[in-house]
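Per-residue structure
===
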Amino acid sequence: MVKGYLMQEIFLILIGLLGLWLGTELVIKGAVSIAEYYNLSKLFIGLAILSIGTDLPEIVIAINASLHNAFANDDTSGIIIGNAIGSSISQISIVLGSVGIFGYLTIKKHHLYEDGVMLLGSVLLVGLLGVDGKISRIDGIILIIVYLIYYFRLFHQERVAKKIKKEFSKHIKKDILFLI
């Protein structure tokens, strides 16, 4: 009986992984379509939209664990911190490492510097806010405000880049017509 149960669980895991794979394909195709339709960069779609989608499970885990802290008097801080830090480390190391093994990535240096500074800055900010041994409500608000500032900066940069691209395209068309 145990052997049959184990085989069933392995089968369900494999079906779940297949569903995850297919779902990922659909999400990526949908994100690329949105980027193309709205003339947005794929980097913006990844940083601003897909990243939130992949973080939703961690956000739900953190909120659920926080509610246990508040209402059940059950300290789940280790789960919340472990999940947040572990997820961040695996996202950077395993995701980018896997891409490096199976292919390659190209990234513009200015994106690496800008987003890398934000990444390091957010880690330092968490360290500074948590120096007293806790992340308080005020600390949480500060962290969310910093994220929103980053998000709106990304959105603004994307709009500016889109305008520049549009203006450049107009001038190129005029220049080509002038040459003809």
Remarks:
- The helical segments are 2-37, 42-71, 77-102, 109-129, 137-179.
- Residues 137-179 form the longest helix (43 residues).
- The CA atoms of residues 73 and 131 lie 23 Å apart.
- The chain has a mean pLDDT of 83.
